[in-house]
Amino acid sequence: MKRYLQFYLTIPAFVLLIVLPGCVKKYFVDTKRNKAQLALFVQGFPQQGEDTQLLKLYQARPKLVHIDPKPVMRGNSGMITSSKVVDTQDGLHAIQLDFTTLGQSVMEHITTNFRSRQLYVVLAQNDDHSKTNKVKMTCIGTHYINQTFSTPLVFTPDASREESEKIIKLLNKTLKDY
C-alpha cells in the first residue's frame, strides 16, 4: 500500500516540475538601444532577516536609500498607457505616467498598503559603459505616498527638461513596441 501511494504521489510532483517552469514568466530588462523601461520600488527598512537594496538618489548630490529588492510595479504596456512631460504651476516640469485599468488598480493597492513611504521611479536603459550587465539603472524621481490614489502618477524628475523629453520619448517608444 505504501509503494502504491508513493507511486501516485510521485506522478503529480513530476508533472508539476515539468509544466510549472513553462508557466512562470521571467522578467528582464530590454537592453536594446533606444529603449527604456520603468520600475517602481518602495522604501525599504533594513531589518535582520529582510533583504533591501541600496539605491542612489539625486545626480548632483548622491544619497543612498534602502529599497525593497523587488519592484512593486513594472512600467510595461500592461500597466502604463503613456507618459508625458507636463508643465507645473510653479513654472517647472514634471513627468506624468498614465495607467491602464490594471495599472490603476495596482497603483491603488500600492498606495493603500505602503502609505507613509517613498515610492521611487527607476529608469533602466542600455549603457555600453556599464561594467556588469550593460544596463544603467537611475532613480529619476520619488513620490511620497500620503493617500490612496489610482490617477496618473505625476512626479518632478531629477533631470533637465531636455533629459525628461528624451526619457519620455524612449519610454513611449518602448510601450508602443510591446
What does this structure look like?
With 178 residues, the chain is an alpha+beta fold. The protein has helices spanning 2-23, 101-113, 161-177, and strands at 36-42, 53-57, 63-67, 73-75, 80-87, 93-99, 118-126, 135-144, 153-155. A four-stranded antiparallel beta sheet has the order 4-1-7-8. Strands 5-6-9 form a three-stranded antiparallel beta sheet. β5 (80-87) and β6 (93-99) form a beta hairpin. It is globular.
Count of DSSP-assigned helices: 3
- Class from secondary-structure proportions: alpha+beta
Q: In percent, how helical is the residue content?
A: 25-40%
List the secondary-structure elements in sequence, H or E.
HEEEEEEHEEEH
- Provide the residue-averaged pLDDT: 80
Based on DSSP secondary structure assignment, what is the total number of beta strands?
9
Oligomer: single chain
**What is the rounded distance between the termini?**
53 Å
Portion in beta strands: 25-35%
Major beta-sheet overview: 4 strands, antiparallel
Please state the overall shape, judged from the principal axes of the Cα atoms.
Answer: globular
- Cα radius of gyration in angstroms: 20 Å
Spatial order of strands in the largest sheet: 4-1-7-8
Number of domains: 1
CATH class annotation: Alpha Beta
CATH topology: Gyrase A, domain 2
Residue runs with pLDDT of under 50 for 5 or more positions: 2-31
